[in-house]
Amino acid sequence: MSRTPMIRSVLTLFTALACTAAAQSGGSYTGSVSGVDLMDVDMMFIGAHPDDDSGVAATFARYILDEGYKGTVITLTGGEGGGNATGRETGRALGLIREEEERRSLSMLGVTSPHFLGLRDFYFTLSAPETEQKWGGPAFVCDVVRLVRLRRPEVLVTMWPGPGTHGQHQMAARAATLAYTHAGDPAYCPDQVAEGVQPFTPLKLYYTAGEADATVGIPTDTVSRTARIRYADLKSVAQFNYRSQGWDANLTLPAKTTPPEQFMLVSARVPVQTPETSLLTGAVQRSATSPTGVRLSVTPEAYEVGQGRATPVTVQVTNTTAQPLTAVQLDLRLPAGWTATGRPAPRPLAPGETASATFQVTPPATAPADRTPLTGTYAALQGTQPVSGQNAAFVRPVPAVVASFAPTFDVAAYQTFARDTGTEWVTGALPTRLPVVVGRTTAVTVNVTNRSAARAEGPLTLELPAGVTVVGTPTYALDAGQSAAVPVQLQVTPAALPPGRQSGLLPVSVTTGAFKATANLYVLPGLTIPRVGTPPVIDGNVADLTGADVSIGPDDLWWRAKPESPADASARVTLAYDDQYLYVGLTVQDELVACNIAPDDVKAQLRSDAIGITVAPDRTSQDTSTTLQAAAFPCTTAGFQARGFRDADAKQGPMEDTAPGMQVASVKQADGYSIEFRLPWAAMPSTPKAGDTIGLNVVLYDGDTKDARVGANISQSGLAWASFSWGGKQALPYLWPQVTLGR
């Protein structure tokens, strides 16, 4: 190529860039364009790991790739704590791979500038406090706030921030919620002012949601005009990039299903259409009746309001458009039987001005104690054009005396967070958890509050499932304005268990007057195991292990597909102990035992046939950092000899390095295998003594892929002695069976 055409090409490119810069700056080219303008986006997703964006992939493709809006993704970690379905890389090396997978996936959706904060991804946890501690405290929230302030998204989307999901997902979503709440306040993360970072207030906050909680669903069965395939198909193709997670093995083109992507509108500072059809309406898209630039909010003084009592609710409108609004009328639309005073007179609203009205809202004395919307409205003229909009907030009317079950520590902490961020109304999707033990009397607490001006007393009426009874007659007696915690003793028998299961999840309720509060009763196995005088030989033959026996069968399912029969996957478990060790022996029925794990690749028991033993020597453990999570593959590619390790606790790796004294051994049987564990108390965070009760679960993993690729993730079924989904069998010590060390 001659120099003249090359120079001409360079000049053409320079001219094009200059024209673009001039267009962006609104005038002739002056030599610079604001870097902040280059950062500006319309929407942002905030997640914990690469691939967390999967719940928004089709929606982002619709808005960014096809409709020309701008968006970005913040991923807090590199995902290096997860598994690797394609190779041996772990730690930061795996994190770099996963980050590149996400970049490639997002680029196919139109997202070209994602952000990775580089926080530590560690073992599987369901604990938000443990996550925050390992991330060095709450300072990371300001890193999220900085990016929100610089990238200026009107719409924030994140995950569910409460218990029931990964602890890192919870903390990513809480950071997003805090950014939505406080990024516009210069007093929040104030050091950023010295960086020249300006406050910015997002306008809408969404959580990804299941169908039951969703307020809007974005279709995936329509065709992308850019990709010329359905959004569900484009999502599938983009997520083929997540190979280290094994997604490419299950995704298809065309996509097998086309469900909508579901979102819950958690908070909005703009008028909202009902029903919503777009995440952007009111924020960056004009609604049918209200121009972009009108802000509208509804703020009750509290979420819980007294039946028959007035409570203040403020409706506020701000005109950030370039034109004045005239005859601005604020109002509040209420359910039947509710009343309100304080409707203001109409007034004009110049650009930049705000008007507000505080209504005194009174629900009827018989209002149901349910989440109830209060809809604030505005109506005005812009020039000669009528404009109007609405937005809603929720309250819950309650009687003077209310009683509810005290939640577990994790649920209580999230309820406090939600209350502090004005998102308390979403906590109704999070039932209180009550662990109880079969064969034992378990104490639960009922919190009773008397908001009346007089003394109140009476019985607590409990509605309990079959097999669960209350000991005695619990009552309350409270002076005006007083609260109390009332202990209630529940006796649980095996009749409470569903057929074929060793654990159960059952509904319960407590009633005071006409007020009823519900909770979930987690029914756990209880067992006393013997102290042995002669230790068993750890050789895979469980015949010499004398102890207490339990059985695990197909009905004890917590993961994926239920085994076809006990011959497909089941186990008899024997437990015993002495001063030095906990002994666990299993006789496992399994028609196809997979041996596809290399001897030097022992980690992540979920990948293949394996056994996990989770031990919380201190029953007060709130996360797995104070537990021992032992596991073993019964065989490897080198033959039928068990390989043991620790996983998902504070000291992971092969047992030789992480649990000195631990032994495992296995023997192939005609209908499966037998396997033994010797777990040293000295390798655990604390050592229990005779008479103590510990948390202990036994987990069976089954993969029935014949001739499976070496190292492949072939997980098909998961069974457990106490089998609760979302990691309860592994990552919530308070949901593990209660085992007493016999004297």
The proportion of residues forming helix, as a percent range, comes to 10-25%
Largest sheet data: 9 strands, mixed
Q: What's the alpha carbon Rg, rounded to whole Å?
A: 29 Å
The separation of the N and C termini measures 90 Å
Strand content: 25-35%
Would you tell me the structural class of the helices and strands?
alpha+beta
Q: Please, what is the average pLDDT?
A: 94
Number of strands: 40
Helix tally?
11
Overall 3D form:
globular
Which runs of at least 5 residues are low in confidence (pLDDT < 50)? 1-27
Q: How would you describe this structure to a colleague?
A:
By secondary structure, the chain is an alpha+beta fold. It is 16% helix and 34% strand. It has 11 helices and 40 strands. Strands 27, 29, 32, 33, 34, 35, 38, 39 and 40 form a 9-stranded mixed β-sheet that branches. Strands 3-2-1-4-5-7-6 form a 7-stranded mixed β-sheet, with helices on both faces. It is globular. 46% of the residues are buried. Residues 1-27 have low confidence and may be disordered.
Topology summary:
Blueprint: H1 3-25, H2 35-39, E1 43-47, H3 57-66, E2 71-77, H4 91-107, E3 115-119, H5 128-134, H6 140-151, E4 155-158, H7 167-182, E5 204-208, E6 216-218, H8 231-239, E7 261-268, E8 294-300, E9 304-306, E10 311-319, E11 325-333, E12 339-341, E13 347-349, E14 354-362, E15 372-382, E16 385-398, E17 401-405, H9 409-420, E18 432-437, E19 441-450, E20 456-459, E21 461-463, E22 468-470, E23 475-478, E24 483-492, E25 504-512, E26 515-524, E27 526-529, E28 548-552, E29 557-560, E30 570-577, E31 581-589, E32 610-616, E33 628-633, E34 643-646, E35 653-654, H10 655-658, E36 663-669, E37 672-680, E38 693-702, E39 717-720, H11 728-731, E40 738-741
Parallel strand pairs: 1-2, 1-4, 2-3, 4-5, 9-16, 18-26, 27-40
Antiparallel strand pairs: 5-7, 6-7, 8-10, 10-14, 11-13, 11-15, 12-14, 15-16, 17-19, 19-24, 20-23, 21-25, 22-24, 25-26, 28-30, 29-39, 30-31, 31-37, 32-33, 32-38, 33-34, 34-35, 36-37, 38-39, 38-40
Helix pairs in contact: 3-8, 5-7, 6-7
